[in-house]
Amino acid sequence: MNKQTKLTLAILLSNLFIAFLGIGLVIPVLPTIMNELNISGQVVGFMVAAFAIVQLIVSPIAGKFVDSIGRKPMIIIGLFIFGVSEFLFGFGKTVEILFISRMLGGVSAAFIMPAVTAFIADITTLDTRPKALGYMSAAINTGFIIGPGIGGFLAEFGTRIPFYSAGVLGVIASILSFLLLKEPARDYEEVKQTSTTQTKGIKRIFHPYYFIAFVVIFVSTFGLAAFESLFSLFVDHKFGFTARDIAIVITGGAVVGAIAQILLLDPLVKRLGEIGLIRLALFVSAILAFLMTVVSSYFMILLVTFVIFIGFDLIRPAVTSYLSSVAGNEQGFVGGMNSMFSSLGNIFGPIIGGALFDQNLNYPYYFSVVVLVIGVLITLRWKRPDLT
Q1: What is the structure's pLDDT at 279?
Q2: Nearest CA among 22, 72, 23, 45 for reference residue 355
Q3: What is the spatial distance between Cα 202 and Cα 2, in angstroms, rounded to a whole number?
């Protein structure tokens, strides 16, 4: 990639990081909000999932706008809406306002994700695209994981401060995107030559190239959402963790996960292949999710959390790399479905986890174990297609 492409990619990844930072910012202050508004764990689960529900609904419409209006305008609008949603959450004093804020956040993600995915496909070649999409996945996961850490530290100055800060970042990112991004040219010649499947419409989801990968995206996102969205409540109720303790654990996990992506992803993919790495990471994550219910010391909580984030951080870019290599001219479709199945995981993870949490602190993690094991079993039948 040349210098201009690298700069454009850096701007796009920064935008994604900021947007998904907003999802995680709410997590450390959930116990405080629960106490302030006297709401149950199930209601908290619905509030966290509201973001993903709206993203799921709006994403197909936004995907059409990305092609008709353009990539750059959708990114700018999406970032601005994100900023508004974070400010609204900061000012909100009722459950209804907090729900509206999360729903606007879902609209912003629905605008940003397909646009950024298509933008990256436009500015990269078939050789450089998998690596760029891997960076995109890393930016999403890092934002989602590190958000609670930053939110926890900022919450020391007030439980609403994290959202004011995120609102400012969203508006700044929108302005910088307007000034620095240039609408990319679309290489239709390459698109025509690299089609991998003639299946049309919704049936493409079930194409052998894609279906298991989409299921893995759902399973891994579900597992991470159920694990992280209830983590602050789990350690608060079970161990008496403060917002600062939660921030240290989750931020540390994010740092370790990012290091693992840099140092381990490439050699593990070369040794095991994307599918082999995904299978191994799902298996290890299932074991660690169970261990969360039996550990008791602060050190063991740190260790288990750090390692499980490594597993989740390796799954997403591995799946993205696989999909990019088989998608050909359907990069936009793959990006949209990636977003949709991620949304489904983000919806059902917190909702089911929240309901189970109200019954027993350990139940959300038991359920995550079951889902992750199912994911492992599914990958046993997954083979890379022969595209030659």
Answers
A1: 92
A2: 45
A3: 36
- Which is nearest to 28 in space by CA: 170, 168, 163? 163
pLDDT value at position 188? 43
Report the candidate in 362, 142, 342 with the shortest Cα–Cα distance to residue 257.
Answer: 142
Angstrom distance (rounded) from CA 384 to CA 387: 9
Options 3.30.450.20, 1.20.1250.20, 3.40.50.300, 1.10.630.10; CATH for 8-179+204-379 is: 1.20.1250.20
How far is the C-alpha of 197 from the C-alpha of 376, rounded, in Å?
26
Q: Domain coordinates of the chain in residue numbers?
A: 8-179+204-379
Q: What is the 3-state secondary structure (H, E, C) of 305-374?
A: HHHHHHHHHHHHHHHHHHHHHHHCCCHHHHHHHHHHHHHHHHHHHHHHHHHHHHHCCCHHHHHHHHHHHH
Evaluate whether 42 touches 355 at the Cβ level (below 8 Å). yes
What is the rounded distance in angstroms from the CA atom of residue 251 to the CA atom of residue 245?
Answer: 10
CA dihedral in degrees (366, 219, 108, 317; nearest 10)? 120
Residues with Cβ < 8 Å from 375, sequence gap 6 or more? 215, 216, 219, 220, 223, 282
| Spatial separation of the C-alpha atoms in residues 310 and 261, rounded to whole Å | 8
pLDDT value for 332: 63
The pLDDT, as a whole number, for residue 72 is 92
Tokens describing residue 173: 């990112």
- Residue pair 212/381 in contact (Cβ under 8 Å)? The answer is yes
pLDDT of residue 196: 47
Which pLDDT score, from 0 to 100, does residue 30 have?
Answer: 65
Q: What is the pTM of this model?
A: 0.72
Mean model confidence pLDDT for the chain: 80
Query: Which residues of the chain fall short of a pLDDT of 70?
Result: 1, 23, 26-27, 30, 33, 41, 48, 126-127, 129-130, 133-134, 141, 145, 186-202, 327-332, 335, 386-388
